[in-house]
Amino acid sequence: MKVFEKYFYKILIHNTLLVLVFLMLIFSLFRLIDEISSVNDVDYTFGSAFAYVIFQSPEIILELSTLSIFLGVIYAFSKMSENSEIEILYSSGISRYKLISKAISFGFSASLILLVLTEIFGPILYLHGESFKASRVKDYQTFFGESNVWLKNNNTLIKIGSNLGDQIEDVVVFNFEDNDLKSIFRAKEGQISRQELSLNNVQKIFINNNKYKYLIDSQIDLAEVLNFSTLKDKEGYIKREPDRLSIIELIEIINISILNNINSTKYEVELYKKIVIPFNVAAMIFFLLPYFINHARDAGVKNKIFFGTLFAVGYHLISKIFIVLAESISSFPFLANLMPALLFITLGYFLHFKRNYSYG
């Protein structure tokens, strides 16, 4: 590696880590504030809440990876411009095109590395964190959904629509065998205790030809049930939403859903959202960095960071719009996630190549 490249990448890595740590401290503080309401003087202390937030750190890193790397690159180039280092590089024969291409390759590689690391450690630490909290907070549900409580016993999953003491309503029981759904039972009401579950007026939902035919209750989210089935050997762990699952787990659920004619759009959206993270970072740098380089003296470091943050927020909102559209029509999840990158790469090419911006 050349001396220039070592120096250049050192600056990019330093500033990216600086931005990432700063943003992590802010977001972790907000997470910790949210946890204070669960703190008690016995089992779940302030130290326990702090440990729980630490368990969530890979998730926070993944959420902030795109913004941190993009702002890290912008901040590094802004500081170099302020210190006249960009001009020194030009005079030594380094072109603007080379600087930008190196920055894009760094952004893509750094986001890919963070994605791999968070995929390895994120799901494991998240599950341990939820188990850690559940063992210390008395009323913390082991399994929960947006409006339903979930219970698990070996290969049986139980979904309870409402819980009034010992009386339960809208109960659905799923029985699995080797990750295959074998039977579904539904009951309008029942009773539950620590030792047993009893249901009244039980109805069976038939399964024909290994396809999930829910003839009685069309509201059952079977893709969500498959999410649970992947955790059948991990007693006491929480049900995870799609954004809590690893890429491998998402692929497994999508494959099973496709085989059984189940809509898996929300899982596909989350899968492709992770896969396109490096492309989003590269597209954001490609679109905005040439403008900052060509107008190096027009604004200070703080103004460039502020403008870069606004641009990143706008990019995120546009991405959300495409994702919501894909989920609403249950189609094109990959294209929806990739479209913002394609859009800004096209706009960047038009602005920086067709408008006579020189790359040196």
Task: Describe the protein in words.
With 360 residues, this protein is of the alpha+beta class. The protein has 2 domains: 3-136 and 271-353, no CATH class; 143-235, no CATH class. It contains 11 helices and 7 strands. It has helices at 3-35, 46-55, 57-82, 85-91, 96-134, 222-229, 247-259, 265-275, 277-294, 301-329, 333-353, and strands at 143-144, 149-153, 156-164, 167-177, 180-192, 197-200, 203-205. Strand 2 (149-153) and strand 3 form a beta hairpin. Residues 140-147, 208-220, 228-238 and 356-360 have low confidence and may be disordered.
Shape call: elongated
Return the structural class.
alpha+beta
Q: What is the percentage of strand-forming residues?
A: 5-15%
Query: Count of DSSP helices?
Result: 11
Low-confidence stretches: 140-147, 208-220, 228-238, 356-360
Percent of residues in helices: 55-70%
Q: Separation of termini?
A: 22 Å
The number of strands is: 7
Rg, Cα atoms, Å: 25 Å
Provide the succession of SSEs: HHHHHEEEEEEEHHHHHH
